[in-house]
Amino acid sequence: MKKTPSGYAVIEFNHSGIPDEELKPEEFTPRQEAVLRALQKDRQAQIRRGCPAAVIDMATGDRIESFNMKNVAPSDFQKKQLGRAVYEAVHRFMQDPENAKKFEEWKKQRQKDGSTPKK
Q1: Which residue from 15, 52, 73, 86 has the least number of CB within 10 angstroms?
Q2: 98 secondary structure, DSSP code
Q3: Closest to 58 in 3D by CA, of 2, 5, 119
Q4: How many domains is the chain built from?
């Protein structure tokens, strides 16, 4: 018998590109305040300080609320790692001739529809 998850999870987002002393907490809505009060005191303190976070319903995976998302700032290292991962994924994708052909067809269709400027 599979057990259904319940409760919530708090996901903290990276703000390494913003020093702690420069975090700017947002003004919270009444709904955000209600969700915040349901969290543990240490989590509340971090969020009130400006740390970006989201509260997720474990049963559905839906976002209950998010906080301070303007303070999400990846570090240069993280940006480089993301760029490297995207580059490698695109490179692998384009190595397959069928994928390259579909991509070219997609570009032509977008130009025909006026979705992208013609070069």
Answers
A1: 86
A2: H
A3: 5
A4: 2
**Residues 99-115 pLDDT 10s:** 889 989 998 888 888 77
Question: Would you say the pTM of this structure is higher than 0.85?
Answer: no
User: CA Rg, the chain, in Å?
Assistant: 21
For residue 13, report the phi and psi dihedrals to the nearest 5 degrees: -100, 155
Q: In Å, how far from its chain's centre is CA 99? A: 27
pLDDT 10s digits, 84-97: 999 999 999 989 99
Helix (H) or strand (E) holding 100: helix 97-113
The range of the structural domain enclosing residue 21 comes to 8-71
Structure tokens belonging to residue 76:
């240069």
Q: Is residue 109 part of a domain?
A: yes
Q: Which amino acid is at 19?
A: P
The answer as to whether 3 is a domain residue is: no
DSSP letters along 18-87, please? Answer: S-GGG--PPPPPHHHHHHHHTS-HHHHHHHHHT--EEEEETTT--EEEEE-GGG----HHHHHHHHHHHH
Read off the amino acid at residue 71: N
